[in-house]
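User: I need a structural model of NADH-dependent flavin reductase from Virgibacillus massiliensis for a docking pre-check later this week. Nothing fancy, just the predicted structure tokens so I can convert them on my end. Input:
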Amino acid sequence: MESRTFRNAMGRFATGVTVITTKSGEDHHGMTANAFMSVSLDPKLITVSIDNRANMLHKINQSGKFAVSFLSDKQQDISMHFAGQANSGEEIQFDYIQQIPVIQNALASVVCDLDRSVEVGDHTLFIGKVVDINLTDGNPLTFFGGKYGKHEPVEYV
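Assistant: Understood. Predicted structure tokens for NADH-dependent flavin reductase:
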């Protein structure tokens, strides 16, 4: 099977949009990702999947900490900025939780200590032990078939 076919099939799974952030020295680093999942409630663990060629891989390994911010439907520009798809010239303003940068006004920001990492194929799975969380109200930014979208609740009859 061709890689493009596989990628197209994976794009048929609707996801939320996140920005993964970390701080290495005085430098802030962020990247857009939708490869995120909750792993465990006890202990509280999450995982993100990062391409082995991404700069973020080395930054998380250096800092030993990272955050995942779940974007609202009003934050598509932030997603595009960290995906390298748009640069408005505006500097991104961060909030800080446990001295780790997080996206302001994200629906949730989950701050983690790096628990372990596992190289799998051309990606590395970073498993984070959750140390803090911030929540706000709003609606999620979604991604499906290579396009951004908004959540539409389904009414049950």
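Before docking, keep this in mind: The longest strand covers residues 108-120.
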